[in-house]
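Subject: for your reference before the review

Hello V.,

The reviewers asked for a structural picture of the protein, and I figured it would be easier to keep everything in one thread rather than splitting it across files. Below is the amino acid sequence we used in the manuscript, unchanged from the supplementary table.
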Amino acid sequence: MDFLQQLGPVALGSRLRRLSEQLTAEAAGIYADYGLNFQPRWYPVFYLVAQQPGIASNEVAEQIGHTHASVSQIVKELLRHELLTMTPDPQDQRRRRLQLTARGHEVLPHLRAQTADVRRSMDELLAETEPSLWSALHAFEQQLRRQPLRQRVAAARQRRAAAPVVLRDYRAGDQPAFRQLNVDWIARYFTLEPADLKALDHPQEYILAPGGAILLAEIAGEVVGTCALLRMPETGSYELAKMAVSPAVQGRQIGFLLGQAALQRVRELGGRRVYLESNSVLTPALSLYRKLGFQPLAQPLPSPYARADVQMELLLP
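And here is what came back from the structure prediction:
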């Protein structure tokens, strides 16, 4: 018989410590399965900085409930591995602001995919346990012995990879996913501009209400791609904008599927012309637009975006 189980609740601390060590060891293996050179203890700090670019380390400590010394040590490790960058606050030189590096932005979508798989696996694992905390801990460990978390996550990953891509319209509650997917790619290559924030923070007001549309791509219930259609002043013209696909699902033609669906939506709305703006460094995106039938615009138009050095259009039959 398990000695700690024999001791009963008096050994709760040891039992939890043993469980914590097991999960930490499994987490390291799971990161390796996703090709991530990442330490489990980095996760809350890295993920919070990704959600709140420019946050200070003391604010990180406050939000995640760790000591400032612990967070400072993790930040040093993330800086050393070139996943975070630290810059002085222009308002207060004593403060240091944290942001993801280019390498950090490369890691982020893969980390999000792994997180989604782990979350589903943990939900399934917890659903297999009993309500009583002590009994639930025992059942939890028994279930881990029956099938380790790493195997469960691998199975979840396989199910996600095999799940179909579902396209649907934007609905209430989608704004955070719509915003984050676009912030991820914009921040990776450029700087967020006021026109970005206006559309991403208030899509109902600035995209949908004037007669536009937002389409989303889902895999296994997770939003992995977005694109928007903005109604332009010219009759029958729409702008294709805010197209973003998570790098974690590259190779599944999600951008092309979204583009095709957007063009079909323009037809349904009675439109005859689709316009878009991009940048010359976004080679895969430009290749996608050409595949959809877009051609360079003969006469450039004024743009609200400093990064827009490519303008294209498609006249629908």
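For the response letter, the relevant points are probably these. The mean pLDDT is 91. The two ends are 75 Å apart (CA to CA).

Happy to draft the paragraph if you're swamped.

O.
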